[in-house]
Amino acid sequence: MRVRLLLIEALEEIQKRPPKLASKSICHSLDLISTDLISTDCWHTITRQLFSSWKHFSGNLSYPVPCPKSYSIYGMVRDYAQIFHQTDYDMYEGEYGELRLDLIRHMLEQLRLENC
């Protein structure tokens, strides 16, 4: 239960979109915020379950947010790994950013339900 509460706090911090986390993945942000409080293996297990229960889940646990069609190049949709590794912009802006924030909202909702 303590781990879930700490995850809620960390996700709420990411949801506020502080500049230092703007170009970071959700997992990397969790690492930066909670490294001293939660073991990586522990929160990875929980987050992967939450990722796969999200209605927009990409099917890839390493890159759970799907690439929107608007991110296509010459009619071909780029994959989420390309976006993640080739980005220097705020990963919480635009269509892709909205999906990331929706995933965080989903994670928070599920964690709060389980803590009731």
Structural description of this entry:
It is built from 5 helices and 2 strands, in the order H-H-H-E-E-H-H. It is mostly helical and 116 residues long. 55% of the residues lie in helices and 3% in strands.
List the helices and strands and how they pair.
Elements: H1 2-15, H2 26-34, H3 40-52, E1 72-73, E2 76-77, H4 80-85, H5 94-115
Antiparallel strand pairs: 1-2
Helix pairs in contact: 1-2, 1-5
Q: What tags apply to this protein structure?
A:
116 residues, mainly alpha, two-stranded antiparallel ribbon
The separation of the N and C termini measures: 10 Å
Structural class: mainly alpha
Largest sheet: 2 strands, antiparallel
Q: How much is the radius of gyration in Å?
A: 14 Å
Helical content band: 55-70%
Give the amount of beta strand, in percent.
under 5%
Average of the residue pLDDT scores:
78
Number of strands: 2
| Number of H- or I-type helical stretches | 5
Stretches where pLDDT is under 50 for at least 5 consecutive residues are none
Give a brief outline of the structure.
55% of the residues lie in helices and 3% in strands.
